[in-house]
Amino acid sequence: MIGVDLAKAAFQVHVATMTGHVVLRRKFSRPQFRTFMAEQAPAIVVMEACGSAHYWSRELEGLGHAVKLIAPQYVKPFVKRQKNDAADAEAIVVAAQRPEMRFVEPKSQEQQALTILFRARERLVRQRTELINALRAHLYEFGYSLPQKVRNLRHAETIVNDPACDLPALVREECQGLLEQIAQKSEHISARDKKIKALASENNCARRLQTMPGIGPMTALAVEAFPPHMGSFRRGRDFAAWLGLVPRQHSSGGKERLGRISKAGQSDIRRLLIIGAMSRLGWLGRRAIPDGSWLSRILARKPRMLVAIALANKMARAVWAMLTKNEDYMDPSKVTAA
For residue 323, what are the CA distances in angstroms to 81, 211, 265? Predict the structure, then answer.
């Protein structure tokens, strides 16, 4: 087993037998590491699931090695005392030799490309929100209180462009510059949205997922981009737990204590599923909820946000079933009636 502590220029290698006997400890440069791995016989290579890990996993698999990735938080408990590259590489091997260890499935180039597209859109949304907050703050200092949301920018444009406005000239110029930047960010976000919608229409699995109420092109393509193959999950509950749509446990002494959902798991898909569930619980979506169904009963006695998370959990389990069975969405109420 070969443990590798990845970096930009220095690669620390820890080679050990499956029984834990150390064979080699050495640091390589980037070209030396590639040459060293090409000369090695096929082995189990273990790395942390960090930056460039998926790239190197594909490269090393091309050389005949079997690659396993471990989440960094699972490696940290095995680091002995002082932290350095050699200790990290050794801890990676020790952690990988644990029979109960969980591994991360390497991503393909296509998956990584989709994740970068999603990350680019999120970055643009954050930048636009920062610009909108700056614009609102500038106007608030001169007595103009603007509500939140992007749709209220027209009110800001009316104020800034009004010839009778009492804003100083410097403030007006700054606000006009912010409005131009916001417009540019909105154009870039719209272009990303169109790209995501086009890619979702070309993907068979994404088209199948969009047959479920509450799942649009963005959620469907996110399910294609971020998680591993659905066959790696034994059941839908495991996929929902991987997303973090399960309560945090504080159980002890045989007594079960369940709290709120944790922030662990895949946050992108979890957030999109919760947003989709909230859309089904709005005043327009409630019209399609049959009387006496599970959703109508729980909605009558629980807060809407709690119901949305429970519904997102059911949606995640349905996503797993649809992708593993290659079936479109079937409405439970209609199936029961049939």
Answer: 45, 12, 20
